[in-house]
């Protein structure tokens, strides 16, 4: 069995709710999570070559984590369609990753990371429910092809209702740890974690601190997971 803490955090391009640009605040929030794996959204600016908003040369010193190696949107980007996954260096040494293109009206993608016995898929779903349904259907199919692997699907689902719009995830347990948006006065459960049956969620929550409320328009979510052996 393996136990780890997984988190998801939409950085809002490190601009806080109203600015200014302050990536050191986001890095401090990430460090405070104490997570082994962190799925990040909006790590790059949106325009042009989509340069990194979260400076890669600051990450390890500030958090003890490193970005997984995967294809970037451009040579100046940290993420793939704004997403990346941070993890402990010892886990990064074992990790393999694959960027996934997703259907929908807007350009969207996911990052799929493989560790021995565990697959983590980091997502930032579209703004239209029809796009989200199509994106989740593709991701659920990918998860189903992982065989005996435990699978976690996590990120900003952009979905505020309970199970509505999440029909493709019937084989996964979908957890919304709490209200995470907007950070200054959280009301909606946009950020979620979905796990296959071989994963037990021991605890979960929203990381709600004064700094987290300033650093992004989303609060991070986290879950302590027990991954059972599947062999």
From TrEMBL:
InterPro entries tied to this protein: Endo/exonu/phosph_ase_sf, Endo/exonuclease/phosphatase
Gene Ontology MF term list: endonuclease activity
Endonuclease/exonuclease/phosphatase domain span: 8-218
Protein name: Endonuclease/exonuclease/phosphatase family protein
Keywords annotated in UniProt: Endonuclease, Hydrolase, Nuclease
Gene3D superfamilies from the UniProt entry: Endonuclease/exonuclease/phosphatase
Origin species: Paracoccus niistensis
